[in-house]
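@channel sequence for tomorrow's demo:
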Amino acid sequence: MKRFLLATFFIVTGMLSAQQTHVHFPDNVKAPLNAKEKIKFEQVYGPNATYVKERPSLLRNLKDLVRNRVEVEHVPYEKAQGSKVLRNAKDLSTVELYNVYNTNLTHDMQYSPQSFNILKYAINFYPEKKETYKLGNHYITILPQAKKERK
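structure tokens (generated this afternoon):
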């Protein structure tokens, strides 16, 4: 129940913040889900993936997240130790999973570009400033949404 409330909070917070200001989405968000993205959505949402796909604003926010706001960088240990941000990055393997719809989700123990799915994790997808997580020697940064104030 705690995970469901946490996940719902992040989704609703993101949707409300999107309603309060005009969100500028890059043009690539208009394109339909590709095959890899469909697999990621189905992995997390299971039979409820159609719920997300039928909600234009939610789908647009999630496509923006996976296409534009997640950066992954491989950083050698020595370089990471020299960076306060990277040294203090939260280990993604300790973050709760967003397994409300699919209780079979498991943590990634290492980063693989073919199988990594940021949507599996119950993290704040709508941070005010960039947030960084680590997974082995890979650092995953979630960028804030680009917003413009309403006129």
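heads up for whoever presents: Residues 2-148 form one domain.
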